[in-house]
């Protein structure tokens, strides 16, 4: 596989959740053939990586054991890699990651950024594979109470810097690391918008940045009906595409999305227009932040 971490163009990661309860595509791909078929379609639609997860990280979700998680993801990883599809495993368990790498996964996508399992750094170091370190403060059941920050961007940046330092101290090579702000993980809608508006401050860490906004509930809240009913998950695609283009234009390395075709098409338009970059002067970033705090939609 070419070196994805150093890829210059935006990387599109397609989501393949093999869980019975994932919030957006829950249960639909639990059957092996259906999951493999969907993974191949994601690749054909333009996904550089298909991200396979066996445990729901939905806020409030119950945990499953490692054996169940492995049973869900390993057959799908084996079949997809045999079909030539590049795969990442979405897990925060070292045991599952290790088995997934043996089964053919090329990347570990760890929503806990190494915090959930102290053995993860060893697994990643020995495999010399890319490791997505997402910003995380606790398992799904607890994350709502953990959404308190002094300045969400500065705090997420500092906590990601700690995760990077821990990984490097464990012997993981710097050029294997990718960071992710972890939208929706111990974050309110206002936190997610502020992180989106101030991505350059996270890019300043000097690592490739993965952005995962696809279909998340803060988009449902933004697009809520007049009576406050959130926009249903399946109707958040245009908003997802907008987040993808804006994140990439701000300098993100990649985006993690459910509808790969829609985002790949939008990124093709962005590339054909000369891959324009957003340049947000600091005073404008501050204004965006203030607007969010006062509920102004820009
Ligand atoms: N979000 C989810 C799961 N895994 N991984 C990364 N790196 N970044 C994310 O934002 C992220 C993730 C939750 O969303 P899903 O249920 O649609 O997979």
TrEMBL record:
Please tell me whether the keyword Signal is annotated for this protein: no
GO CC, sorted alphabetically, is: cytosol
**Which CDD domains does UniProt cross-reference here?**
DHPS
Q: Which UniProt keywords apply?
A: Folate biosynthesis, Magnesium, Metal-binding, Transferase
UniProt feature, compositional bias: Basic and acidic residues: 287-298
Under catalytic activity, the entry for this protein gives: (7,8-dihydropterin-6-yl)methyl diphosphate + 4-aminobenzoate = 7,8-dihydropteroate + diphosphate
Domain of life here?
Answer: Bacteria
Q: Identify the stretch(es) annotated as Disordered.
A: 278-298
Q: Which residues form the Pterin-binding domain?
A: 10-268
Q: Which InterPro entries does the protein's record reference? A: DHP_synth-like, DHP_synth_dom, Dihydropteroate_synth-like_sf, Pterin-binding_dom
Q: Which cofactor does it need?
A: Mg(2+)
Pathway recorded for this protein? Cofactor biosynthesis; tetrahydrofolate biosynthesis; 7,8-dihydrofolate from 2-amino-4-hydroxy-6-hydroxymethyl-7,8-dihydropteridine diphosphate and 4-aminobenzoate: step 1/2
Q: Which family does it belong to?
A: Belongs to the DHPS family.
Task: State the protein's purpose.
Answer: Catalyzes the condensation of para-aminobenzoate (pABA) with 6-hydroxymethyl-7,8-dihydropterin diphosphate (DHPt-PP) to form 7,8-dihydropteroate (H2Pte), the immediate precursor of folate derivatives.
Q: What is this protein called?
A: Dihydropteroate synthase
**Which species is listed as the source?**
Micromonospora arida
The encoding gene: folP
């Amino acid at each position: 596989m070419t070196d994805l971490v150093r890829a210059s163009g935006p990387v599109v990661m397609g989501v393949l959740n093999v869980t019975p309860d994932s919030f957006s595509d829950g249960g639909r791909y639990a059957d092996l053939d259906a999951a493999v078929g969907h993974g191949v379609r994601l690749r054909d639609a333009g996904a550089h990586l298909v991200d396979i997860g066996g445990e729901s990280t939905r806020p409030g979700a119950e945990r499953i054991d490692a054996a169940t998680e492995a049973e869900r993801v390993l057959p799908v990883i084996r079949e997809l890699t045999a079909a030539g599809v590049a795969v990442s495993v979405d897990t925060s368990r070292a045991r599952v990651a290790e088995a997934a790498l043996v089964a053919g996964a090329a990347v570990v996508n760890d929503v806990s950024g190494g915090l959930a399992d102290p053995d993860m750094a060893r697994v990643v170091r020995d495999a010399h594979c890319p490791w997505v370190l997402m910003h995380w403060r606790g398992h799904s059941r607890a994350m709502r109470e953990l959404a308190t920050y002094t300045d969400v961007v500065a705090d997420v940046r500092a906590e990601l810097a700690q995760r990077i330092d821990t990984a490097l101290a464990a012997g993981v090579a710097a050029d294997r690391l990718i960071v992710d702000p972890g939208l929706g993980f111990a974050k309110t809608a206002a936190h997610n918008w502020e992180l989106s508006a101030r991505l350059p401050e996270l890019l300043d860490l000097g690592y490739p940045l993965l952005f995962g906004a696809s279909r998340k509930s803060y988009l449902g809240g933004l697009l809520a009906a007049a009576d406050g009913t959130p926009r249903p998950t399946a109707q958040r695609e245009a908003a997802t595409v907008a987040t993808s283009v804006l994140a990439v234009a701000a300098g993100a390395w990649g985006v993690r999305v459910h509808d790969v075709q829609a985002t790949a098409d939008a990124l093709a338009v962005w590339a054909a227009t000369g891959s324009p970059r957003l340049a947000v002067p600091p005073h404008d970033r501050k204004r965006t932040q203030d607007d969010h705090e006062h509920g102004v939609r820009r």
